[in-house]
Amino acid sequence: MRWSRYNRLFRSERFGCFLYNSLSNTLLELDEAHYCTLEAISENRRKDAGTGADSGFLALLQKNKVLVGEGEEERILLSRHYRRQSICFDTSRLGLTLCPTLACNFRCPYCFEQSQQNGTVMSAETVTRLLNFIQGYKAIRQLSLVWYGGEPLMAFNVICDITEKILALDLDFVGASLVTNGYLLDVEKIARLNELKINFIQITLDGPREMHDTRRVLVGGKPTFQRIIDNLATLMNSTYAGSCAIRVNVDKNNVESFHELRSELLEQFKCKKFTVYAAHVSTGLGHAYDHACSLDLREWAAFTLDMHRKGGMVPRGGFFPAGDLDSICVATAHHGFVIGPEGELYKCWHDVGKSAMAIGNIREEEPVTNHVLRAQYCTGTDAYNDATCRDCDVLPICGGGCANMRLRTKQFGEKGLEFCSPYLESLIPCLEAYYDNFRSKEISAALLRPGGEKHEYIGYRVVSPEKKKADSNRGPR
Asked: 440 with 52: CB under 8 angstroms?
């Protein structure tokens, strides 16, 4: 057995000794003796690694890939690569992001879209073509939608028309999400959300009133914060059955105001199906918005950890690595498309309105014509095919990062984009933050159940989250 190259053996000043393995996504808490044993093994890295360890500890190390056999790591990566490809080319599901218009009533300085002034709204003919396009995928069993723009609520009648027609089709329509700035989300529209099967809404606020109204303004420059808050209150107090997430686009200009906004919103909408999360603003070097405003990987990780220290905030998805990330999104899924108001087909939200990045048009007899760009997204951004990523010890928990930024950097030569996982720079601090929460919950449980079940500590234990069973519905079809 050999010492895995995916091991991180470390001492925490606050919490003691640990070993993390990214291949199995396992965190072990260790006493000093077991830490020293592993330290000796790691320094030797010999074939007979583990000699002298007690049988129970040795079995745990082998089970969690701390010690691996010859070629075992490569076989596991090969299996995961196959899993990613099988999900990528799954033909049973069709995921569409629909832009009924690219027009927008806002003028946000960091927006990546270049078409906000294009007032085109999806026509009845294009809607018919869209229905034909969907029905052309005979093998699909599930259809999911995301309403996007521009500002999709500027074409709300088109959303209603398309949804009504899709509900009449003989397929499993699992529901839709709505990405909106929230300004037009009035009482009449809210009343129709359930029948439109919109089960998730994302609204963006970029800080408290003063900060938000310097960034997210109407076309004429007027403020938008109070109108959005009023609409949000109406939504949260309605019969809407879905959930809502507030996205806060964070950069160096508003990083200090995030905690204040989050605290205020969570207090105002307590006990609702409601979350607030920070999102990374990342612009390329040629963007009109100052590229230097973006937080780099190290700064973003520091911000996340600081929010945890200040207010106990746990980021979306938690601090512990998700593990087994497949990096599948609409851009990398073979049956995933973004469709513009004139029927143009894209692979990524960030490409909307850029004619050079269209892969075809649903109005044509053969909708997909740019097969090279489609392949560049689906397989060209695959981190398992990247030699640098293959040598990285966080690959098993990274998944490759943003496909769009990877494509623009690796294949188009664009500078100034960071697509790597924050774990590359800040894995240990994230694991410490996770363990801090883990111990707090453990202590609380012991206080609440003083006579509860107790386990003898034998100098080591697994403290990572219980692994979820693989989804039996995922995989090759």
From this structure: no
pLDDT for the residue numbered 466? 85
d(CA 320, CA 97): 30
What the block records as the tokens of 343 is 């029927």
**What is the widest separation between alpha-carbon atoms in the chain?**
74
Any idea which residue has 């070629």 for tokens? Answer: 71
3-class secondary structure, 82: helix
Where in the chain are the domains? 2-75+423-462, 101-295
* Tokens 């074939």 found at: 47
pTM for the complete prediction?
Answer: 0.88
Q: Dig out the tokens for 170 from the structure.
A: 């003989």
**Backbone φ, ψ for residue 153 (5° rounding):** -70, -10
Q: Quote the CA–CA distance of 420 and 395 in Å, as a whole number.
A: 10
Which single residue is written with the structure tokens 């009023």? 230
| Block residue for tokens 């693989």 | 470
Residues 6+ apart with CB under 8 A from 427: 8, 20, 321, 394
Q: Return d(Cα 213, Cα 203) in angstroms, integer.
A: 15
pLDDT digits (tens, 9 = 90+) for 387-406: 999 999 999 998 888 899 99
**Number of Cβ atoms within 10 Å of the Cβ of 457:** 9
Contact partners, residue 308, CB within 8 Å, separation at least 6: 314, 315, 319, 433, 436
101-295 CATH fold: TIM Barrel (3.20.20)
